[in-house]
Design goal:
Layout lengths: L2 H9 L8 E5 L5 E4 L6 E3 L1 H11 L4 H7 L4 H13 L11 E3 L9 H20 L9 H30 L5 E6 L2 E6 L9 H28 L4 H18 L7 H10 L4 H10 L5 H40 L1
Parallel strand pairs: 1-4
Antiparallel strand pairs: 1-2, 2-3, 5-6
Helix pairs in contact: 3-4, 5-7, 6-7, 6-8, 6-11, 7-8, 7-9, 8-11, 10-11
C-alpha cells in the first residue's frame, strides 16, 4: 500500500465495523472477544479509540483526538483485523459484558481438602515403595504417569467449557525449558473471580481424583502398592512443578485469581528494575527459588525412571 493509499484508507469513515464483547479485568484493563476462542487484553485508551472508530470517526480523526501517531491507531486496527474482530460496515456491534453472578466454591474446596487428606493418610499408613527395582517396571509407571497428564488437561477442558460455554483448544508451548501441551483457557478472563479460580484449579483437582482412585485400588489389592506409590510420587512432583507460580501455568493463574493481580511477571521485573521492595519484586525472587527446586524435582523424577536401567545394565558394564 502506497503512502497515498494509506492516507486515503486512514481518512475513510467506517460505521460499526468492529464486532466484539468486552469486560473489565481486575487491573482496570479490558478483555475483548469476538465470540470465538479469541480473547485480547487492551487498556481503556485503546478501547476508547475502538469505540470512536466504530461510531464513524476516521483513523486520522482518532489520532488527532487522542494526540497519538496515526501508526498507533492503524496498528490497533490491524491487530483486531488479524484476530477476527473486523466485519463488514454496519454489521458490527460492540457490547459490554454484564458481570455474571459468581459461584460459591466452598464445597469444591472442602472436596479438594478431603482428597488431599485421604492421600496423606495413604502415605503415612500404607506407602512403602519409593523406587522401582526393574527397568520394565519403571517404564510402566512412567508411561502411566505420562498418560495421567491427559486427565489433568481434561479437567481444564471440561470446567472451562462449562463456564465459558466455548470449547477450548489444545495448544503447544515452551514454559521456561519445559515443552508442554495444554488447554487454552484464555477465555476464563471473561468469568467472575471464583469461576476463574475453579478453571485454574480444575487440572490439579482431576489429578487428585486419579490419585484417589489408585489409592482405592490398593485398598482392594495390597500388592498394587509397589506400583501405586512411585506413581503417586511422580504425580506430586509434576503437580509441584505445575503449581509453581514462576511458570505461566496453573500456579501462576491460581495466584493471579486469588490476588486479583494481572501480569505479575511483568510487574515483578519492572519493580526489580526500579529497586523497589514490594509483593511483585518479592514474587520475582521467590519464583526463581521455586524454579531451582522444581528443576531438582524433575531430575529426581528422571533418575527414578532411569535407575533400574543404570543399576542393571550400565553399572555391570563397567565392573
Amino acid at each position: 500500500m502506497s503512502n497515498a493509499e494509506c492516507q486515503d484508507f486512514a481518512d475513510r469513515k467506517f460505521h460499526n465495523i468492529f464486532h466484539f464483547e468486552y469486560g473489565l479485568l481486575d487491573d482496570s484493563t479490558f478483555w475483548i472477544s469476538p465470540g470465538n476462542n479469541t480473547l485480547l487484553r487492551i487498556d481503556k485508551f485503546t478501547l476508547n479509540i475502538l469505540l470512536d472508530l466504530n461510531t464513524g470517526k476516521s483513523m486520522c480523526e482518532a489520532a488527532k483526538k487522542y494526540n497519538v501517531e496515526l501508526k498507533e491507531v492503524t496498528d490497533i486496527y490491524n491487530r483486531l483485523e488479524q484476530n477476527g474482530f473486523v466485519v463488514a460496515a454496519n454489521f458490527g456491534k460492540i457490547k459490554r459484558s454484564n458481570p455474571k453472578e459468581d459461584i460459591d466454591i466452598a464445597p469444591y474446596i472442602l472436596i479438594f481438602l478431603a482428597l488431599i487428606i485421604g492421600q496423606l493418610f495413604y502415605f503415612t499408613h500404607m506407602a512403602k515403595t519409593v523406587l522401582m527395582n526393574k527397568t520394565i517396571e519403571g517404564i510402566v509407571v512412567g508411561a502411566i504417569a505420562i498418560a495421567a497428564i491427559f486427565f489433568h488437561e481434561l479437567g481444564h477442558y471440561l470446567v472451562s467449557w462449562k463456564y465459558t460455554k466455548v470449547k477450548p483448544k489444545m495448544k503447544f508451548a515452551i514454559l521456561k525449558i519445559f515443552p508442554v501441551i495444554y488447554v487454552d483457557t484464555n477465555l476464563a478472563w471473561r468469568l467472575p473471580k471464583n469461576e476463574r479460580l475453579l478453571v485454574s484449579l480444575s487440572g490439579v483437582f482431576f489429578d487428585l481424583i486419579i490419585n484417589t482412585i489408585v489409592v482405592i485400588l490398593v485398598l482392594g489389592k495390597g500388592s498394587l502398592e509397589y506400583f501405586v506409590t512411585p506413581f503417586l510420587l511422580t504425580q506430586y512432583i509434576r503437580i509441584s512443578i505445575l503449581i509453581n507460580p514462576v511458570f505461566k501455568g496453573d500456579g501462576y493463574w491460581i495466584l493471579s485469581d486469588l490476588l486479583g493481580a494481572v501480569n505479575m511477571e511483568r510487574k515483578g521485573i519492572e519493580e526489580l528494575k526500579r529497586g523497589k521492595i514490594n509483593f511483585f519484586s518479592l514474587y520475582g525472587v521467590i519464583s526463581l527459588i521455586f524454579s531451582i527446586l522444581a528443576a531438582f524435582g524433575l531430575i529426581w523424577f528422571i533418575y527414578n525412571l532411569a535407575r533400574p536401567f543404570i543399576v542393571n545394565f550400565v553399572l555391570p558394564f563397567f565392573r
